């Protein structure tokens, strides 16, 4: 039998703000993120379809059109990140590890109208975006999806040539109506963006996906600050010596993280929740308001658009580093409460030891977020790296908040 889809002309072109915004928002409203028959996330872009791209060094949004109807969209961005490490050849630092960088592209926000699926529109959008990636020098392309989102996984792995690459965990914790108590044995020091850049470059620049333009991230208006946790009595805000001296003789244990205000970019909404789950969440809030001194854990109203803060750049060392991370997460929770956020979220490698200090609710989190990667070019920018798609995962990854 003839395929009637072959007679339908699908045009893929660049997104135009004035012409396409209203139709793109309409399409986004019809699309759910996540596997069917389960809870799904709806993204409220606050009227700005490229809100999740604006802070990237280079980005593009494409739409697929049939006649006057927009039936699909895709977003992509490019940046330079660490993909490996090597030993310095400098005589002064023979044992120092230096990062090896590659130009990496990221696909996000692929949507196809429910009424126009299985017509090859998603594949056409991906191919067009990959062509732009290659034209702009990207060596690899990757995307992220839930491992249970079989339709998305099948499209990228079976039709687009992507490989399953990393399986980090998204850890989400509700923001309660009361402040979280931070251990008195831990001192938290706010760092200036310039101090944070020095600390990150010296300690974390060889971690996979570490952005070479970390200074742009930390100086962005959405980055609410970087915070260092140290044992009480070791350092204070008043006697902070600066990152260089700190790194020459750090305390036995310390930890660091940064906070990104995603609430100003877009909001989320949980859809598909049963009446029982909604009632349970409401009950926890009622009890929390009625008995605030008990500081009961309550579920915010996530069934209407809510904002969140994203924690990134988590790292540290020492035997009490987990305790330090827990204190930082409590501190970040209190910041989020002041901003009126619904949740605090972060993403870490599946084998990240620091995750033991990150409070989260299993029902809100994703144990396995699947990242798939594809090599776009034949040659490599650095022969020492080889094929990144075949590399062994490290214990940590750096999740750029601009990609969230």
TrEMBL record:
Q: Carries keyword Transferase?
A: yes
Which GO molecular function annotation, any one, does this entry have? acyltransferase activity, transferring groups other than amino-acyl groups
Keywords linked to the UniProt accession:
Acyltransferase, Transferase
TM spans (from-to): none
InterPro entries reported for this sequence = Acyl_CoA_acyltransferase, GNAT_dom, Plant_NAT
Q: Which domain of life is it from?
A: Eukaryota
Domain N-acetyltransferase, chain residue ranges per copy: 10-182
- Belongs to which family? Belongs to the acetyltransferase family.
* Record PANTHER family: ACYL-COA N-ACYLTRANSFERASES (NAT) SUPERFAMILY PROTEIN, N-ACETYLTRANSFERASE HLS1-RELATED
Protein name listed in UniProt: N-acetyltransferase domain-containing protein
- Its source organism is Pisum sativum (Garden pea)
